[in-house]
């Protein structure tokens, strides 16, 4: 058997994943719930191996502080983080049918279908419906637009539609509503009117405790639980900086209409790192170890120029040229690359795409996504963002708990700055319950603002300002406040660290690897293979006794015992199926090695080792074969190196006996 | 330093767990949410090691099929399983203050406080309040009853109260309400009236999807997700029986008023096994491997006799005598024992308690809890139940999906039985929408019922019966039904497997091990130690350079590299603290080994190895020391065996230098 591959077919892959129970819709016997999937034994083992590799690659290697924080999260925390207000998609209701559409997806789909209809009308395609059905099948989405009408559009309309589609991810709800009005977008099945888009928050809400009054959510990310433990972690780390925390756990997102299988689900496994770094020094101690790693970058200026052609360079060059903001961010980008390659991602289908200014959170200094190419297009699988001091600052402001690092300065420094003194005992009588708000407003002014205020006070004898949350203007004279420039000597530097956050969507990575590692043998396309790297393959070895003859049983038991002792995951297949069928099943499960036990094994204790991808076979003693498996699986050796002392083995009819 | 222990103090333990960030209240800077805790780095690593051990001990060793199913669960599934109707506690509201009490806890606490007041009135205790305060401190619960009044009770009232308290776990909501009326139990702080107990469902509810119409819950256990995948798992197992599935994941319980720290929380990690077995053959292939394991049993008859004195015998005897229902249940009980001992449970504080008839679910054939003794009393940490065919049957009935095993019979069998034939075309016109209900009622009659019906039909010319859900009686004559005895030959046996379910509360086990493994050195009670077994200790080795002198740095780096390569989790403590202080910190973290690097290390590359519990030290080469660590931690060797070739090492002042 050769290692040649037939053309990729998503349908074939999905059949294999279903047949071998890598995953399946949750609650399928109850009709299922969209966006929820269960992992069966091979999917679960694959996931566990990837998590284990992640833990070793990041946490152990870098001595990160792993935490396990709760999914249930009270309202206040997510209000502060911004998720209550901003973590939402836009949805439109059809009040008559009760249907709900995700606004951006609807606009996208309707305009795309009109463009296809236009092409048919222009005679550029034969049958847009057949074409779209094919497309829909490929994309496996439930299309809202059932029929495409061959209607020619004006040239300028085509251009407009194309411009809208190119920017579809960036529209606000209001803008989407305007587009729907302008282009007369209704419910595609009934043509009935839709309500204007409203924000639908994507967090699952629940009530904590019996009173029903403590609102809570299921976390949308693991990050917040890490931020809230910042001070405890810094203590745990003996106050040393920089350091990183990490968490692996489930997060939740109440998608409006989940699609694309494992790529967009409502409950998913994440692995996130929060690396805390001095904002004035974002160098990384181990950057030199990765500086020569060559990556494919899609920086924002290339995207702005309308290109999707990645730039290939080393991470060292990328940081030196300023394309990647800093060494720490660059270090993690390279480490993400190394991790993804290790677990089976195809390096030709991996790129790092920089966020455009309009995609990036306002506080972020820089952000790169590791995108993996699949039959659904390029998919964001890992985010790597410099979140600046945003998170610690907002939680600290809200809770009044200091989330800072205090560093003894080698040399004391003198600091000259403007300071504001409040005559606090006058604030209470004047502002009553608003007094804390006014005080907070005044003490949080920047140097620049203080200078302006000082001038205003000097020139007008008073300052006039507005405070958010208090009606009307506020006037204060110098019996309330005093602004002065002072000079202090400081021995301690206190700062809020910045956060570099690599954030992994494990399910998306897993699905992408399924696609990257799936192929069919060219000479028999029904013979499918999942070529997982041995280190992450769900099972490492299949034991195949030639028959159920009792002479073979003790050998199977003996090899099982040895494998179990060495903690090498294996399965025995002593079913009545032919050897060929058993190996075919095994190839679909991605098991890298097969061991055949035959009647020669009874005589001389030799066994045959088969390699999944090449179907090559070698013969040797139990000890030597297991040694080879162990070296290739866990010690980074290759098939060639580890089997060169073993005897090549040719069966009469290879896999098909 | 000796290994002698001072008396256990929960306060000391809690201080250590907090100081070393084993765990902490979640969202603490926001004031916390009761019943939610985060694990910090050592707690998280300890948990990961226990999960890893569990996976190897059960899943790998027994070739179980691990699955990862979703936490979000639709209403219908949990309605069928019985959780919507029965998974609740009883709560009472004070409508005036808005306070909510868990009814059984309130009755328990009020009656206990009255009994204490009685004792004081009788002069049996000096100050019941002081006593109770002490008690409350010990139990660390927020007591509702703030003050105990020294009021003497009638002797028969005392007896009544004691009887109620002994049965407190078994009352229904109505009964609790009657007790509250009878004993005049009000809000303890205001003496205001309370509403009668109402059922409070302990599941967290949420809405799935944007319409808000798909009700869902966070799963209260991982079991249901496993049951629903039964057929896929049986297929995956090539239809072979028996087999087991397993799941490790978070579950949720919206406790009315969580208390007892990690023992009663709202979000917790579970590990559950569902072992599917032939109801007619519950023997276990590997039972002989465990039959001589000696366990402490507290069977139901001993409990009924009012004793808590466990019976010590082998699991072989327990099964043979019928005390434990069957071999498979017994096998898992023994395997649970072995697991718990492996991860650090004190075998003197472990017992297996059988459920009493009133505790056990009606469908369960037998149920034993592994209980661990802590300062909170005996705590249920692992349940091991024979759930019969209940779960698969209810889901199958609800969904009409067969959840059965079909086995080819070695010899065909002849089955003679009564069968009922329905004249279906007459049912529709007569019963209209009720027809399916009537048909289902008739076709699900037992053999015994069919014989009765046949007689009735013969004697009266008709049968009269009632069907739940249909008003009035139903009469049918023999134009509708026909009952006959027939004989068939069957080649296939179809059956619903029974489920043996070992279910582990990982958080409760973890907390119990903290208590079992915590002690203070007798000569310095502030020196606390957590004596975790090396295999599950969060970190295995602490590297302690004598000073920050640059000569020592390369050696620390070199040892770090070797340990990392061998994947032995370690920490470096190069803080300025004294060696003694650093080891003390380390003992609190439960790290079994310390390596000291001193100036002799520079000369001859020798290092010192320190054992946590005994504080014994030996000296040897880097290779030999790491070899010893590896043997003791991962290969089951002892300190004595693995260090006998190394040189005993005496420091001038041992740990206190």
Automatic annotation (TrEMBL), chains A, B:
Its EC number is 6.1.1.14. It catalyses: 2 ATP + H(+) = P(1),P(4)-bis(5'-adenosyl) tetraphosphate + diphosphate. One of its GO terms (molecular function) is transferase activity. Keywords: Aminoacyl-tRNA synthetase, ATP-binding, Cytoplasm, Ligase, Nucleotide-binding, Protein biosynthesis, Transferase. It is an enzyme of class 6 (ligase). The keyword Plastid does not apply. Residues 191-545 form the Aminoacyl-transfer RNA synthetases class-II family profile domain. InterPro entries: aa-tRNA-synt_IIb (IPR002314), aa-tRNA-synth_II (IPR006195), aa-tRNA-synth_II/BPL/LPL (IPR045864), Anticodon-bd (IPR004154), Anticodon-bd_dom_sf (IPR036621), Gly-tRNA_synthase/POLG2 (IPR027031), GlyRS-like_core (IPR033731), tRNA-synt_gly (IPR002315). One of its GO terms (biological process) is mitochondrial glycyl-tRNA aminoacylation. One of its GO terms (cellular component) is mitochondrion. It is found in: Cytoplasm. SUPFAM superfamilies: Class II aaRS ABD-related, Class II aaRS and biotin synthetases. Belongs to the class-II aminoacyl-tRNA synthetase family. Catalyzes the ATP-dependent ligation of glycine to the 3'-end of its cognate tRNA, via the formation of an aminoacyl-adenylate intermediate (Gly-AMP). Also produces diadenosine tetraphosphate (Ap4A), a universal pleiotropic signaling molecule needed for cell regulation pathways, by direct condensation of 2 ATPs. Thereby, may play a special role in Ap4A homeostasis. Homodimer. This is glycine--tRNA ligase. It comes from Cyberlindnera jadinii (strain ATCC 18201 / CBS 1600 / BCRC 20928 / JCM 3617 / NBRC 0987 / NRRL Y-1542) (Torula yeast). The lineage of its organism: Eukaryota, Fungi, Dikarya, Ascomycota, Saccharomycotina.
